[in-house]
TrEMBL record:
Required co-factors: Zn(2+)
Protein family according to the UniProt entry: Belongs to the creatininase superfamily.
Keywords, sorted A to Z: Hydrolase, Metal-binding, Zinc
GO function terms (MF aspect): hydrolase activity, acting on carbon-nitrogen (but not peptide) bonds, in linear amides; metal ion binding
Coiled coil: none
Protein name: Amidohydrolase
Source organism (scientific name): Lentzea tibetensis
Gene3D superfamilies referenced in this protein's UniProt entry, alphabetically: Creatininase
UniProt superkingdom: Bacteria
Pfam families membership: Creatininase
Record GO biological process: riboflavin biosynthetic process
Keyword Isomerase set for record: no
Amino acid sequence: MRGATLIWPIGGLEQHGPHLPLSIDYDIPVALAHEVASRVDGYVLPGQPVSARSLPQSGGGLHFPGTVHLRGTTFINYLTDALRSLEPLQLGRLVVINGHYENEAFVFEALDECRGDSEILAFSWWSLVDDDWVAEHVPGFPGWHAEHAGVTETSLMMHLRPEVVRPARPDHETPPRAGIYVHPLDAKRMSTDGVLSRTSGASAELGKRLFHHVVDNAVDLIESGYGMR
């Protein structure tokens, strides 16, 4: 493994409405990791399935069963220990692909605790989706915080694992605003059965285009040295 590229998908188990499985935040980064690895001659570390807790404005919150989570401090400590255990491998590059919205800050903090000689690239998959692509393919886009169980995630799963996607396509007409925490919360007003925006318009073809758009951008980012070389 000395000098190799290692890709670590980090996800979560969280409710995603009546039509998607709990594992979607895990399934997507794992699929992306394997596709990216095949194009950069890298290796994939088994995915991390448990995440930071869901929040009301970006995942429906803990009002819905099925969200398995760790406290933020526990999550950071877990990630830090795992990352430090990779140091003896003397990797050339570590790429972390995150698939759960609330994980991002914790992942970045853990990486800050473990900086060594290896190159590090970490991102949430949606951070590699160009604004022009979103404007063309997802009209009325509510923001990534509110895309929970929405068009993009539904389409990706219709492409990657169509057998686990149920036919229901609930829409929520008033997506929550980002960065606002409310307690007590009216879960029915915040979402429609756990969906924060809309699912109508989702398709396997859209999911395929989105998947390869993210993979292409990830490969370009890796091969260009993240624009910092």
